[in-house]
Amino acid sequence: MAGGKLTPRQKMINLMYLVFISMLALNMSKEVLSAFGILNNKIVESNAITDTRNESSFQQLAQKASDQPGQYGDKKAKVEKLRAMSKEFFNFVEEIKTTATKKFPIDPKTGMYPCEQMDKSDDIDNMFYHGDKESPKAKAFLELIQGYPGRIKAICGSSIADVEMKKIEKRFATLPVYSEKAGANLPWLDYNFHHFPLIASVTKLTQLQADIKATESDVMTGMFQSDLVAAASLTAYQPIVVPEKTAFFQGEAVKGKIILGKFDPNLVAKSVIVNGTSVKATAGQADFSFGAGAIGEHEISGSFNFDENGKVVSLPIKGNYVVVPKPNSATISADKMNVVYRGVVNPMTISFAGISADKVTASAPGLSSAGKPGSFKMSPGQGTEVTINVTGTLPDNSKVSDKKIFRIKGIPGPTGTIRGEMGVVKGPKTSLAVSSVGAKLVDFDFEVGLDVVGFNLKVAGQPTVVVQGNKMNAQCAAVLSKAGRGDQVTISEIKTKLSGAGNYMLPRTAPVIYEIQ
């Protein structure tokens, strides 16, 4: 098209052809820019999914750490540090994207950047370069990328396999890259971001964020890979001694089971040795039985033996049990005192050492069950002592018995009160006239209600007034009207009985004195 003498018409045709080619190139460029935008959105969506998956994995780890802190607590602490460091890195990259695209807001309807307008490189170039030199922002960006694998290694240590660590280091490598267009090695930042359309740089930054999320996921998965490998090996099984009970009577057979900590119904041991004797192995366990031996603590030892990869794997058995003599005395105690009191319900606990509470019975006058094994109620009657007989049934259905004598005491005498106060009470005469006479049991271990049913009122120089009930009557009012300031009113012969206990009267109640002010 450039040679020879051309007619004006031919020149016009050639010019139109050039315009057409330019328009095709322009359209292609717009399509590429839009493709970057679509790719960016796909990566953003993928990041959200990965973030949700990572959060779910972490919550599962947190639950395991709560249930088994010894096994998972350290892993949870490492993952927490890793996630915090990754979040800081992710947010730094997000801040770069936000700053660079502030002139190009996302369409709220489509969720897309205006990709065709983001064909210039100035926003990223001005952020990452000051002239021909890298800006402080670019240096901080590079330091975060370059240091990320090292920080992961410092946090997780040997929890990450070497092959996984190499993959992470390669993913965040910032070595110079050979450019065919330049014919030389270019710095990593120049090769990836210098003079690129803004939408392409934003997409690359989003991909970097995806690498951060993927690394976080890979590390959490890798940290538990060793656990999965170990769980698949027979060396992960732990034999556990489970006796029928923790202590045995002399002469009894010690019975129980040796079970594996990880029970597998398809796993049967080649052999099981317990205290030097071979016992029959079943699916994941073995039953044993041998004489208890002498009184004291004894060890249970042996091994579970399996074939694995052509060799025998022996898992040690370690346990112990205690032999105790047959019980010949019961343990009987009053929950609140060393005696039982007449007039109240005395709670009691009765047991036999080495015998379950439901195999123990007790009998005595006034003794009854409190509703659950081992708990009783004692309401003693007349006399000064009561004998409690106890019988226990051993595992072989033989009986053992014992008895205990308890003293019976009456409830101690209460102290009289005016307005709930004891001793010498002071106040105006009008207050006494409307006050009630009461009684208290001082330092008594039971909560009981007391009713005053009568008392005597005496003012010096006046006749004694005998009152029925606990209120001042008209005779009291007449006597009190002649009393003056400083006079003492003695309330004595207070008759007290237990509330709701019929006519059970308490011993003599101590008097109370009211001094008129």
Automatic annotation (TrEMBL):
<dbReference type="Pfam" id="PF12081">
    <property type="entry name" value="GldM_1st"/>
</dbReference>
<dbReference type="InterPro" id="IPR019859">
    <property type="entry name" value="Motility-assoc_prot_GldM"/>
</dbReference>
<dbReference type="InterPro" id="IPR022719">
    <property type="entry name" value="Motility-assoc_prot_GldM_C"/>
</dbReference>
<feature type="domain" description="Gliding motility-associated protein GldM C-terminal">
    <location>
        <begin position="412"/>
        <end position="517"/>
    </location>
</feature>
<dbReference type="InterPro" id="IPR048406">
    <property type="entry name" value="GldM_Ig-like-2"/>
</dbReference>
<dbReference type="Pfam" id="PF21602">
    <property type="entry name" value="GldM_3rd"/>
</dbReference>
<feature type="domain" description="Gliding motility-associated protein GldM first immunoglobulin-like">
    <location>
        <begin position="230"/>
        <end position="325"/>
    </location>
</feature>
<dbReference type="Pfam" id="PF21601">
    <property type="entry name" value="GldM_2nd"/>
</dbReference>
<feature type="domain" description="Gliding motility-associated protein GldM N-terminal">
    <location>
        <begin position="31"/>
        <end position="225"/>
    </location>
</feature>
<dbReference type="InterPro" id="IPR048405">
    <property type="entry name" value="GldM_Ig-like-1"/>
</dbReference>
<protein>
    <submittedName>
        <fullName>Gliding motility protein GldM</fullName>
    </submittedName>
</protein>
<feature type="domain" description="Gliding motility-associated protein GldM second immunoglobulin-like">
    <location>
        <begin position="329"/>
        <end position="409"/>
    </location>
</feature>
<dbReference type="InterPro" id="IPR022720">
    <property type="entry name" value="Motility-assoc_prot_GldM_N"/>
</dbReference>
<dbReference type="Pfam" id="PF12080">
    <property type="entry name" value="GldM_4th"/>
</dbReference>
